[in-house]
Amino acid sequence: MKFFLYWLLLFPFCLPAQTVGDQIFIQEVVKIHSFKDGLPSGPIDLLSMVNNKPVARQSKQYFQFENGKWNLFASGLKAEGVSKLPVIPGAKILALVPFKGGFAIGCDKGLYIYKNGKKPERIFPENEKYNWSLKIVSALVTDSKGRLWFGAEEGVGYLDGETWKLFTGKDGLPFNKFTCAAAGPNGIVWFGTQKGAIEVDNDYFKYRASRRWLPSDQVNDIAIQKDGTAWIATDMGISQISPVTMSLEEKAKFFTKQVEERHNRMGFIAQSHLKEQFNVDSSEVAISDNDGMYTAMYGAAQAFRYAATGDPEAKMLADRSFKACKWLVDITHEKGFPARVIIPADWHEPINEIYSVEANLKHQKTDPMWKNIYPRFPKSKDGKYLWKCDTSSDELAGHFFFYGIYYDLVAKTEDEKQAVREVVGDITDHLVRHGYKLVDHDGKVTRWGDFSPEYFASVYGYDQRGLNSMIMLSFLNVAKHVTGDPKYDREAKILRDKYNYHIYALHPKEFFPPENVVPWDNNLCLMSMYGLIKYETDPALLLMYRQSLESAWQHISKQKNAFWDAIYGSLANRFTELADKKMFENKNLFPENRLYAPKVVKSLYKGSNNPAYILENLHKIPLDLIGYTMDNTHRLDVVFDSSPLQNENVGWRVDGYALPVDERGHVRQDRDGFALLASEGDGHDEHEGTFFLLPYYMAYYHGLLGQGDRNIGK
């Protein structure tokens, strides 16, 4: 983890223009210290600052951190306290802190204030919500504003003058088994607990737990440097959490560098594998199940970047991504069929052995819809490469999303535009030629590539018809826009008039039962909505698609996902612009129900999103994109989803929104933000920075940054 902190310290934080992307914020950066850095193995039981440098204690040995290394520190630490404390009968003292010329004392019997020569006075914190007779007061600290903070079984509170402010899980407190507390600058306070650390900033609680933040979750002590850097002692080493000033543009440069150095395989973008757990220096390029989609998303990020900034590097990367995506189409058995993945023929993993006929048949015992196709990685015609088949709707959604954006924003010359026309036409023609199906090298439809009316009428496909009908109409809209060929309009009209695809599209994805609700459907739904609405010209259809967008959005709007928020915000704003231009007035669009059009315009005139959540999510995306296992099921500030048949580990914060992205297991923006127990590789995978770059540059291009309430999510 050294790379993150050292890179930030060396990076020149200066940009000439003051755009939204240049405005600075605080990015918390983590470095884990262990025996590799000079610490002894095992628990660190005490931390203190000596000349603003951390000193750690294990048993009777002391170590000071200096010049990037922990060294034996001969001086030891002076014990803090008072020479003589009063006896509190039957009580065990757990915490002590100077306060108003005396001391605040925390014990198993409660909170006491002691002044020399006076009897200890027991304190009973209360306000308009709570009246507490405290127990197990194991954490006390006085902050930089002179306020007395405590941590107890009942919760957290502070005394400001004569007024108490008190917090429980209902008020955002994540956990209440306290071990220590420490004060930082600007009124910030840190609490250590038996399961993670809690940072309190302006009455907002940030939970710092799991290997993303700490070597282990048992926090034994905390010390804060003058610049606000928190040093946290645990049973398996020390965590250094530094508040680093940076801008969104600097963060974008960091992630572009990360993608190019560790996630670029022949132009394809995917997660990387870490041969040593948690160590990005051991990274090796890997393949995903959706290289096409993830490469397309990176290409779209660079296309928006190019359109917003004019940076020639962005055009180069967008061009490379386009060529990689087109190669996926050109390499396969049939014109217009896109592969999932391309790898060299001598790839180090035995991929076809993994997907043998025997393995497929075994897989079908638990998943009857699993496709038995062999080889799953056919060889290219020149024998140099293997490409993965059984391509899905996810891949197609990525391709069409990117191609429209690339065509509009990046392709300048006629040759560049013609290349886009060809690949879009080839894929769309393949689908139409096969009855709206993606047909594999075995002559059969892929598992998730069926967009046909027959599939929608079947017991296997009825639940997919809303999503897949909308997606197919989106593909045809993109194809019409890019190629200019009216045949795609004719195909779309057939699907609407004969098979009601536009009616099905009003229900663009499943919401129940939970087993049918998968987060990547949210992703490809919103991505396909972009092309569907952006390139639609029929006002009646636009009204229906806007209603469909709202239906999809309302069921994911609480996840604080910057990518989905950016797509929704851009499309909702476009609808507002069209309504302002009177596009939907006096057209007799729905004569059978003349109230439909004005009702949709009135109710959906403006988007129901808060654009400030985009900025919040972009700020909070951690620089460390290693996939960690994170368990939030014990938290006091979550509400479990009690919907019928719902997974027991699904829930949200007490404010009704998903936990912040830096406090949950999923850093990818195509996952379920409500999953309270999640892992993406358990420290063996690093994920690509596309999940910051795409929402950032998309929001930048569409003017969605810097709007809304800036106080959200502090």
Automatic annotation (TrEMBL):
Keywords from the UniProt entry: Signal
Domain of life the protein comes from: Bacteria
Signal peptide: 1-17
Designated name of the protein: Two component regulator propeller
Source organism (scientific name): Dyadobacter psychrotolerans
